[in-house]
Amino acid sequence: MSGDRLLDDMFKVLVEVLRKEIRAIYLKKDLRYPDKYRRALDGLLIEDDAAIYLNKPKHGSEHPLILSSLIHELLHRALGRSSEWEIRSLEKSLFDRRTGFTNEQKRYFAKYIPKHTVKYGPNLDMKGSK
Description:
The protein is an alpha/beta fold. It has 4 helices and 4 strands. Helix 2 (64-79) crosses helix 3 (84-94). The protein is globular.
């Protein structure tokens, strides 16, 4: 734990969301919005399926962007109606080197990132996606 009570509480909330609410995490090469194919995504939460799709960066699955995307999508699930700006702001503070998650906490989340990509993308009508 980090020693910061608020940060550790946020870690616990996100761990609970990951363990109890998310059914699957997929790694997809070239992830894009299903209805706006030109727009690339770093991650996508499918609320109805409790699934997270993460874009595989060209640098491989160990790239920090993919971990940041996972946390971002978990925040969407945990915080519900929070705005995209609020989620991005919180995500940024959670990854701050001095005041954010410890390396141990980041490694905990990283172990949930799949090693292999899926060929299929999210199949949805954009209801319940963030």
